[in-house]
Amino acid sequence: MNPAARSGRIAAAIAVATAVLVAAPVISIIALAMQPAPDVWQHLIDYVLPRTLLDTTLLLGGVGALSLAIGTGTAWAVSLHEFRGRQMLLWLLPLPLAIPTYLAAYVYVDLFEPLGLVHRTLALWLPLQDAVRVLPNLRSLPGAIIVIGLVLYPYVYLSARTMFQFQSAEFAEAAKTLGAGRWITFWRISLPMARPALAVGVALVSLETLNDIGASEYLGVRTLTVSVFTTWLNRGSLAGAAQLSCFMLAIVAGLIAIERYGRRNVTTEFSAESPRLTQRTPLTGIKGGCALAACLLPVCLGFLVPLWYLAHQSFKRGLFANFDMALWRDAFNSVAFASLATLTALLLGFATILAWRWRPNTLRSVAMNIAQTGYTLPGLVLALGLLAPVLAIDNALNTLAGWLGRSLPGLIIVGSGAAVVIAYVIRFLAVPTGFIKAGFERIPRDYDDSARAVGAGQTMTMRLIHLPLLRPAMVGAVIVVFVDCLKELPATLLLRPLNVETLATSIYQYASRGSFEEGALAALLIVAASIGPVAWLTRFSDIPSGPA
């Protein structure tokens, strides 16, 4: 076998193995759900499912609507208008992505609880009891919708902004000729044309909301995710938790179907005759000030307030001066798990796309598509689905050791933290796969043909041509995956080894004990690690507007 064929088969084998790895948790969940759990299931039907399904539906709908309103409005303002402070907003508006939903929930509950900062401030003007009555109850469904929506709206903003700033000028000019004003043009032209991007953004927001467990649990909203968690750990029913997880998978499938429906029959190509982009409308005076204030409000609430609170608590409690050595240990665990998962996901994603690039066929295309579906799996469902396969492997290794007359190694994969790394890889594999696929699409196949003409094999072409040109995409993938791994809570919470904490689980433990302020520095480290990557993703987001 020649080296090119051998390299191609190795890449194809890795691609297929990657697809099997991603599909394994789903298969495991379905198998677990088929086990009988009559006592638990009757309890779930009578007391859990009605409220859980209602709360989950209302939460997804509310967060989606709030994120859609904030993300679309801010994207439209900064993409199609010019006003003082606009350049600053381009960097600030995506930054709430650096705040995990559970951190936002912990911060705002502390701020608005009785005797919290907001209550003490109101007490300066109102009697103490009246100040308590004025405070909003954030431990509620509306509170969860507001808190989660404020940190997830950038998914809609980034998607909508891409569409708004690339809209052709001819449509707005035609509407203006017919007498349409700015608002009519927005509702009748800009918004419908941005529908595909809005559908993608809302779908991402909904998936992140469904994945959340820290914020929902802390704010008293019994979502399906929280119910799976309590059914598994509190009631000890793995089969019941798996059956609830199947409901979550059905919701995920529904969200994907809605996203596809939102993008139906819509084309976003530029006109061949008039490729000019829409000119930004200047806003001055009161209009410009209102636009700046409206765009700054979600940034302040979704990013600046949590960041200020965490920094304030860290200094107030002397967490910088008296640095807890346990925090070093938790930070090391977080970085170690995230680094291993990032490297593994990058290698698997690269091999999967490379196999498809070298020799596209049905098998490799299916493997590539399956590899990109892991992100749709909520972290809790992923952890539950991985549990049975991982324990089976550990048991097989113990059986093999006993057969060979060696001492039993115990739970190797679970006990070493490898299960956490595997969960990270499956969940975030879509990121490097998507980035690298997009990078390959920008490399003309003529380059491959030219390399082949001078006698270069596939491996040499990959090393000398593909890798240098893919470096920006791969760097972007590494940054995004690493930060996502640092923030991931549900899968880490359930798969980490005993007595092993990460920054995310350490913060969760503090909040569960009612002393979240003591974990402010750990939370600040996660936010600080996330700010740079979020800013990096927006560094080239602005383009010049069309000519007047």
Automatic annotation (TrEMBL):
Q: Name one GO biological process term.
A: transmembrane transport
Residue ranges annotated as coiled coil are none
| SUPFAM superfamilies according to UniProt | MetI-like
| Superkingdom field | Bacteria
Q: Do you know which CDD domains this protein is assigned to?
A: TM_PBP2
Q: Where does the chain cross the membrane? A: 12-37, 57-78, 90-109, 140-158, 236-258, 290-311, 331-356, 377-397, 409-430, 520-538
GO cellular component, as recorded: plasma membrane
Concerning its family, UniProt says: Belongs to the binding-protein-dependent transport system permease family.
Q: What is this protein called?
A: Iron ABC transporter permease
